[in-house]
Write a structure and sequence with these properties.
The protein is mainly α. The protein is built from 19 helices and no strands.
């Protein structure tokens, strides 16, 4: 216990210290939101990766999909690395960097306004972001709290309060640059931690080969013998849906593409592509590989009163068998993953609400100093709201982390992925098509959620509903653009000329 507490206290001290040291870099709006647009490749790549992979992945998704799909769940991590990281950087990185500078946009809603000359699009986008980032944030508390409960036997409420306070301190103090430095530190912990944990868990089962062999011998309802150790698992179609949502979905998440706004030059984009991909292969691939061993730790403690497995309890049960030193590493790993993502989410939400909604519609003459103060206040407000929601969720019937994350990702990616992607590449993309994408993304996700609460969801899984929303957006944006008023030619040409400018 002493080792675990010491490791935790050191981690918290370093995290808070970074926030306080970075105060000077957050003295104005550009510094607070974008780190002065001068963040290098290593910091940006790690910020991207640590924002991508949180306790939601490590505890919720790895537990649920490792239990369902066995070793084939590793495809989710590889998809995250190749589609969610490598292709995202290759396809979005340079163009986002160049176009956001040309448009002088600092947030995704700001991009939509400048690209399509529509203030109402900015207001709608900021509302969608603020509303649907909250359930995602609540899911982070859930995963972290389960690990803390396993390691320290600390009540759920105390875990939420502790994480909320620490994150608020360093984000309010140091803004984006503080989160980027902390993300780098936290990323190193995640890399080392996941490798050590996989080795320890596999060794406890007699080695990797023996663990896979044991998985192949397991049979259950819907799980034929050998399927948990097979290449594509017992349910390839639903596995593909998870790969698409968790990989392609990141292309439309504002807290992810925001990293490309802040990177300092195109050379950093190229280097960051390699670093981010390698990080994702190790962390995401490792998380889902670890989750694939879940059924080897079957125990009555992971089932609810109805006899169904509580997916969020599977990874904590697995890790409870490790030595104390490794449990301390696990705590820091999950703490790192959760805080890095939480800081990214609250910074994105507070900056969007301040710059795009309040300044954009309510108080257009807001001074830079007032904007900065407002964003810092909203960081705290957003953390409090999400913490309260996490407590409510904990006591409600929505018990699986993946459900909250699927709803959030589905609405955000379903709304933003298509118009953002086509806005970067297709000159003909119209403002009307963006509106249609917003309606489809939010409409499909929310309608399916409400129908699900009534027991009549038209798509059973919120993850597959999110995939459907993204696919619909990718179809309707070019279709609607072909039959609606195009943007002004001069405006579009000026924007796209930024891609032919000399590279820095």
């Amino acid at each position: 216990m002493a080792i675990k507490i010491i490791l935790l206290l050191v981690f918290v001290a370093v995290t808070v210290a970074v926030g306080l040291v970075c105060r000077r870099r957050a003295a104005d709006v550009a510094g607070f939101v974008l780190g002065g647009r001068n963040v290098g490749s290593w910091l940006t790549a790690f910020a991207y990766g640590t924002s991508y992979f949180s306790a939601v992945i490590f505890v919720g998704y790895a537990g649920q999909f490792g239990w369902k799909y066995g070793m084939s769940a590793t495809w989710i991590g590889l998809g995250n690395a190749l589609i969610g990281s490598l292709l995202a950087w290759l396809i979005l990185g340079r163009r986002t960097y160049a176009m956001t500078r040309q448009l002088n946009s600092t947030t995704m809603p700001d991009f939509f306004e400048a690209r399509f000359k529509s203030r109402n699009l900015k207001l709608a986008a900021s509302a969608i972001i603020f509303i649907f980032l909250i359930p995602y944030t609540a899911s982070l508390y859930n995963g972290l709290s389960r690990i803390f409960g396993m390691a320290f036997n600390i009540p759920y409420e105390y875990c939420i309060i502790g994480m909320a306070v620490i994150t608020a301190v360093y984000v309010v103090a140091g803004g984006y640059f503080a989160t980027a430095i902390n993300d780098f530190i936290q990323g190193i912990i995640m890399l080392a931690g996941i490798v050590a944990i996989i080795i320890a868990v596999a060794s406890g089962q007699g080695g990797f080969g023996a663990a896979v062999q044991k998985l192949g011998e397991i049979t259950a309802a819907g799980v034929p013998q050998g399927s948990l150790a097979s290449l594509f698992g017992p349910d390839p179609l639903n596995l593909l849906g998870v790969v698409i949502l968790t990989s392609l979905g990141t292309w439309g998440l504002p807290q992810m593409v925001h990293k490309f706004y802040a990177i300092k030059n195109e050379s950093a984009v190229r280097k960051g592509t390699v670093i981010s991909t390698l990080f994702a292969i190790i962390v995401a691939g490792g998380c889902y590989l670890l989750g694939g061993f879940g059924r080897l730790f079957d125990n009555p403690s992971i089932y609810n009163a109805a006899g169904a497995p509580v997916y969020d309890a599977i990874i904590p049960r697995m890790l409870s068998t490790l030595p104390d030193v490794l449990i301390g590493v696990v705590v820091m790993l999950v703490f790192s993953a959760s805080m890095s993502t939480l800081s990214s989410l609250v910074l994105t939400s507070s900056s969007t609400l301040t710059l795009d909604f309040i300044k954009g519609a309510v108080y257009p003459k807001m001074s830079g100093k007032t904007q900065l103060s407002t964003m810092r206040i909203l960081v705290v407000v957003f953390i409090v709201i999400s913490a309260v929601l996490a407590l409510v969720q904990y006591k409600s019937s929505v018990t699986f982390i993946a459900q909250l994350m699927g709803i959030s990702w589905g609405a955000l990616a379903g709304s933003f992925l298509a118009p953002f992607l086509y806005g970067l590449y297709m000159k003909r993309t119209s403002a009307a098509s963006v509106w249609v994408s917003f309606v489809c993304g939010v409409g499909i996700t929310v309608a399916n959620m409400l129908m699900g609460l009534a027991g009549h969801a038209f798509i059973k899984s919120p993850i597959n509903a999110g995939v459907a929303a993204m696919i619909v957006g990718l179809i309707v944006v070019p279709l609607v653009s072909a039959f609606t008023k195009p943007p002004e030619t001069e405006h579009v040409e000026r924007i796209f000329n930024s891609f032919s400018a000399n590279k820095e």
